[in-house]
Amino acid sequence: MEHNAPWWKNALIYQIYPRSFQDSDGDGVGDLNGIVQRLDYLADLGVDAIWLCPVYRSPQDDNGYDISDYCDIDPVFGTLADMERLIREAGQRGIRIIMDLVLNHSSDEHPWFIEAKKSRENPYHGFYIWRDGVPDAPPNDMKACFGGSAWTWVPELRQYYFHQFSVKQPDLNWDNSAVRQQIYGAINFWIKKGVGGFRLDVIDQIAKVPDEKITNNGPMLHTYIREMNRATFGGTDLVTVGETWGATPEIARRYSDPAGDEFSMVFQFEHIGLDQKPGGEKWDLAPLRLQDLKQVLSKWQTELYCRGWNSLFWNNHDLPRIVSRWGNDGAYREASAKMLATLLYGLQGTPYIYQGEELGMTNACFPLEDCRDIETLNLYKERLEKGYSEEEIMRSIHAKGRDNARTPMQWTAGPNAGFTTGNPWIRVNPNYRQINAEQQIGEPGSVYSYYKRLIALRKETPVVQNGRYELLCPEDTSIFAYKRDDGANTLYVVCNFYDEHVEGPLLPVQDEDVLISNYPDPPAGSHLRPYEAVWYLCRNDRVTPVLGGR
Ligand code: TEU
């Protein structure tokens, strides 16, 4: 690692969806004290920081992404004292807590919105975005992310308010400096509590311009972010990661410029959209082409090298489980889960694990009555009205619905997978008897043990942090292979992406160069078994490279 590099460049961040992680009081919903109970598990895995999805006071219309008090904890998750305890207990294990900041919108039950709705003269009216009008004729045809118009009519005011997500998530008006000051106050409240950083929800949508139908990357975006940086986390060692669906590499460099004054890094989603029909929505399914994945991941590696910083992820609470999506959750579940980790963790950036990914947890594929997500439920209604068949809609939901990632963490083979003694808010995936943490910890061949080893290796292998990236065999349709070179050493990462035997590239490596691989024995020559994946580490000054060995 470069000298004086910030801690988060060599960190592993673990994302917790608190509702579904661990329930400590039997109400069927995970909570902060539940997380405290599991800190030793996270420390054992090698976690440096936890990104905690929102735990603020909230009506839970969008599971906490609708905040009604930015400086308090929702009773369903615990109390402010529980939060302070979590920060303390995590800190004792060397783990920092990253809070999720939802700053684009609040809940409609936030006191600001309740005031704002009282009259046009109310001092909080301008905290939100309003347009005069008449019923049934919204200012324009913009759509909300969770279905329907982005404009909702308030008869008492004879005005519409703007919301990019649900009707219960009115957009905050960032052009109002009073709004920005209130937000910075809330951020500083948490900094004083000792949090380790922030993930900033849909941050590239805060500077929207509804009249011009601009949602992300509005003209004032970077001005606001820099102002926020100066007023809050700037100059600290806090990690900040912006969620930016609209980022190109060029924009991402601006956010994460090492000498810059915005964020540590952003989440970009270009690879995440590769299995949907061009021009369609995520529900419009298309097969993934491996060459596209190679091209996109390689582009980001190259374009941010020394000029920005990548975040590395396959999963989060909005995305389907990666082993079901691009791996194989049948016969090759373990091999393919390990392959996907091997591929991602050899790249440059800060890796994120989403809870349960380290166990190879799979999609749930529930019938509609077991789905809980507002996005899924709205989509079902909307597409049925548009004439889609039920079968087609459910196929999309099973492939892409957010509930896939939100089923309870599978701790044990006991009742409710050890998640709760009560009635879980969402069903446990029935495969918990075969897939659970208890059975995988200490088991050398498990997905968990493999993640643990990869995480440790990443931290102790400088070329993983710094090496220059180069894609190998770009035209190959079944192998994803690349190298990283830092001048002293080269790391070769070779992954068979599918369930067939194939011939891999010829590389100047030997058996003893294998740092980690997902089969019990190293590959035989350049032959790769289904989903086989390997890291080879070689010194660049080796006298006689054995060409063609692999
Ligand atoms: O998500 C932003 C977003 O645009 C998508 O992830 C969206 O949720 C959906 O999957 C698109 O089909 C963030 C949060 O991660 C998400 O959980 C929230 O629901 C959303 O913002 C609103 O706060």
UniProtKB/TrEMBL annotation:
Residues 15-406 form the Glycosyl hydrolase family 13 catalytic domain. GO terms for molecular function: alpha-amylase activity. The keyword Nucleotidyltransferase does not apply. Keywords: Glycosidase, Hydrolase. One of its GO terms (biological process) is oligosaccharide catabolic process. Belongs to the glycosyl hydrolase 13 family. This is Alpha-glucosidase.
